[in-house]
Amino acid sequence: MLPAHRRRTRGWALALGIPFFAGLAILTLTPARVERSMPNLLDLVLGAAHRMGWAALDFTRLEIIANVLVFVPVGVLAFLFMPRMIWPLALLIGPAISVAIEVAQRVALPHRAATFSDIVANSVGATAGVVLALACTLLFAPRVAQHPSPTLEAS
Questions:
Q1: Do the beta carbons of residue 125 and residue 72 sit within 8 Å?
Q2: pLDDT by residue (tens digit) across 100-113?
Q3: 3-state DSSP call for residue 25?
Q4: What's the pLDDT at 62?
Q5: Tens digits of residue pLDDT in 21-56
Q6: Quick one: which of 124, 129, 125 has its CA closest to 82?
Q7: What is the pLDDT at residue 66?
Q8: What is the value of pTM for the model shown?
Q9: CB neighbours of residue 79 within 10 Å
Q10: SS3 50
Q11: Distance CA 149, CA 48 (A)
């Protein structure tokens, strides 16, 4: 059985993860007819950046940054739900999800560009999320005794 602090952490991760993954699915797997009716978030951010004087930021750079940042929570959530004994497998979850999204875009959404650079950027973000979660765990998680304390035997 998981310790109480891990159960609470997983509960919060689940409560935040479900809406996050729903949003990720909407962001990456939206059909063309729906996508045309929605404002392009990257265009809005890029326009605001240019108004603020960040002329060096172009659409390609912004898209790469967005792909990295969107997948950081994927890495964090993968780490939180992976059993501690096999946590390094969390490093494979982000790239696997990214490949699945790109394949779905290639097969079912011809208006979307399925690119290898998206897989790389997403994988970098997910890896950063795993590293962040691991660092936070090492720095802030309560220490649990490695060996149970000996029980007193009745005389």
A1: yes
A2: 999 999 999 888 88
A3: helix
A4: 80
A5: 998 888 888 887 777 776 666 677 777 877 887 777
A6: 129
A7: 87
A8: 0.78
A9: 25
A10: helix
A11: 59
Beta-carbon neighbour count of residue 150 at 10 Å? 6
Closest listed residue to residue 71, CA positions, set 95, 89, 90, 88: 95
| Residues comprising the chain, all counted | 155
- 74 touches 125 (CB < 8 A): yes
Token output for 149? 């304390």
> What is the Cα–Cα distance from 24 to 15, expressed in whole angstroms?
15
If one counts every other C-beta atom within 10 angstroms of the C-beta of residue 101, the result is 22
Looking up tokens 């979660």, which residue turns up? Answer: 133
Q: Provide CB contacts within 8 A for 113, sequence distance 6+.
A: 105
> Is 70 in contact with 125 (CB distance < 8 Å)?
yes
Within 8 A by CB and 6+ apart from 66, the residues are: 42, 45
HEC string of 57-70?
A: CCHHHHHHHHHHHH
pLDDT of residue 42: 64
